[in-house]
Design brief:
By secondary structure, this protein is mostly helical. The protein is built from 5 helices and 3 strands. The termini are far apart. The structure holds zinc ion. The site of zinc ion has 4 residues, from helix 4.
């Protein structure tokens, strides 16, 4: 009886320490697991938060093409508000060398457009504001626009979609990728 009690005490201790170990481990694992999975949000303090993902994509697209673009350091600002001119989805306002350019996206366009169309317009405006590009109205023989830097006032047909976007972004950062001469 005495022996048996001792034995069960021993087992209790064993069990108890096992319990402590197993009870502690999940916490430790959880701590480690949570820390690195925190999503890293790149912030653009001068830009409307809704535009952040597109500004970040622009930087990523540049990096994928070997160019370093930092829109925070460049102090490009961005806002979403009503643009009075009809059929104008976005604007880039420049101030010469006085201060960095400012992107404005039309609020009504923003409320209706899908992700890819938003990307198209934001990239177009950053093409003006950051890359200093002017409009390019060239047209492929099938009538499609050569560049997302088309003005939209002439005749070429937009063809920005999941399949064509890589080539259009190549042209945005390096116009010579499409030569029509
Ligand atoms: Zn434009």
């Amino acid at each position: 009886m005495l022996f048996s009690n001792k034995k069960s005490l021993f087992y209790s201790i064993l069990f108890f320490s096992f319990f402590i170990m197993t009870a502690c481990q999940p916490d430790a694992v959880e701590d480690i697991a949570i820390a690195p999975s925190e999503p890293e949000i790149r912030e653009f303090p001068l830009v409307d938060e809704r535009l952040w993902p597109y500004f970040e994509r622009f930087e990523d697209a540049a990096r994928e093409r070997g160019e370093r673009v930092d829109l925070v350091t460049a102090r490009i600002s961005g806002k979403i508000e009503a643009i009075d001119q009809e059929h104008v989805a976005g604007l880039c306002t420049t101030f010469g060398n006085a201060r960095p350019g400012s992107v404005t996206i039309d609020a009504e366009f923003w409320s209706r457009a899908g992700d890819l169309f938003k990307e198209f317009i934001v990239f177009h405006e950053l093409g003006h504001c950051f890359l200093d590009r002017n409009h390019r109205e060239d047209t492929f023989s099938n009538g499609q626009c050569v560049s997302i830097m088309r003005s939209g006032t002439l005749d070429c047909r937009d063809n920005y979609n999941v399949a064509s976007r890589v080539a259009y972004i190549d042209e945005l950062f390096e116009p010579s990728t499409v030569r029509l001469d």
